Amino acid sequence: MSTAEPTIVTKRLRADAVRNRAKVLDAARAAFAERGAEAQMEDVARRAGVGVGTVYRHFPTKQALGEALVEERFDGTIAFVRTLLDDEPDPWRALERCFEHCAATQANDRAWAAALASMAGGTIAGPREHQMRELLALEDRLLARARAAGVVRDDLVVADMPALFCALASVVQAGVVDWRRYLELLLDGLRPLPR
Amino acid sequence: MSTAEPTIVTKRLRADAVRNRAKVLDAARAAFAERGAEAQMEDVARRAGVGVGTVYRHFPTKQALGEALVEERFDGTIAFVRTLLDDEPDPWRALERCFEHCAATQANDRAWAAALASMAGGTIAGPREHQMRELLALEDRLLARARAAGVVRDDLVVADMPALFCALASVVQAGVVDWRRYLELLLDGLRPLPR
DNA sequence: ACCTGAACACCGTTCAAGT
DNA sequence: ACCTGAACACCGTTCAAGT
Asked: From residue A127, how far is each of A5, A74, B83, B181 by CA, in Å?
């Protein structure tokens, strides 16, 4: 039951290596946002202006490169939900804004949408398990507030969230004409029973 | 605005070709159900006991082979919804059983779940467009009944269905612990407003 | 006509040679 | 220490040779 943060071993890198790593990440962000898992390593290298070997020096596999980008997105989402807990007094509005933020970021990033669709859907275990648990812990607080205020159905629990995130992510990812309409249906569906 | 059924050109096949085609389809059903798009053509050939070339003789690409299997699933689903319209007098129960049938079949077939997640989500256009439209036409009748009976929110329209199918499919596909719970939330969410 | 499987193409990954 | 890109492996697809 360790609560240790994941160990980050920041080896001192040579100046050119630091620059290259950043260029690879920039290129990868663009490539993965556009094409999701279909992004090609050769293309990432080309966009970054480095050889493929350099991409692999910084990230052992394509999978790992994708994970690094997803990790950034998780950080952003976790930070956003924290600000909701701190600054959004309306418990319903906070829940709404959380889902909306996820969807909006996913609309511009296929890999992020795909990651949340499969992560949230599958077992939580995996490379991003720690962040997923952290995000869910924050969601739990959003939900507790909402239940206490009576603005959501009282049987709604944090264990329901992964499926909801998965569902929303796949609708956004699929490029449905209007994910906002689906979000509306999803959110209305969380309201107290019976209608 | 042609209403012609898709032309089926059933060339007379040699007896061994008929057998091989069936063996390929059987093998492909198993492989695609288990592994979805990750199924391998070499593996399909091996399971079928034929050479890869034979698989390609009957289906020009892996994509096309997958489509053939999805086509079967659509036929099954369309037939099922027709029986609902004929035999299920309770309009709410009919809607419920329709979603449940989709989810249950998807739970045993990764390729089918993936197909519905991306088809229903993306633009309807594509190889299965005709079947998708047919299915949606049937859904439209289910919905019309349900609205008339006042058992669903009155702003729920058939255009909302693709997103709902997409969402459900991805939750089932992702192997979430309990897609039945998500289905419950989804269905409750379709009930008349305000709660 | 139809079948087979070796050969080819594409893309993820490695590694010997360079700076 | 880090970079490069040719070479290798894997899997989708083709096609010359067989029945």
From this structure: 13, 12, 45, 26
Among B156, B163, B188, whose Cβ lies nearest the Cβ of A171?
Answer: B163
Query: B194 — contact with chain A (CB < 8 Å)?
Result: yes
- Using the CA of A55, give the nucleotide whose C1' is nearest: D3
Cβ-based burial of B142 (10 A; exposed 0-12, middle 13-18, buried ≥19): buried
Per-residue pLDDT of chain B (195 residues), as tens digits, is: 333 334 455 668 888 999 999 999 999 999 999 999 999 999 999 999 999 999 999 999 999 999 999 999 999 999 999 999 999 999 999 999 999 999 999 999 999 999 999 877 666 667 788 999 999 999 999 999 999 999 999 999 999 999 999 999 999 998 877 999 999 999 999 999 886
Interface contact B144, partner A, CB < 8 A: no
User: Which chain C positions have some atom within 7 A of a protein CB?
Assistant: 1-7, 11-16
Q: Which of residues 92-121 of A touch B (CB under 8 A)?
A: 117-118, 120-121
Closest CA to A96 of A180, A159, A154: A180
Segments in B5-151 forming alpha helices (H): 15-35, 41-48, 52-58, 62-87, 91-107, 110-121, 129-148
> The whole model's pTM is what?
0.91
- The verdict on B30 touching A (C-beta cutoff 8 Å) is no
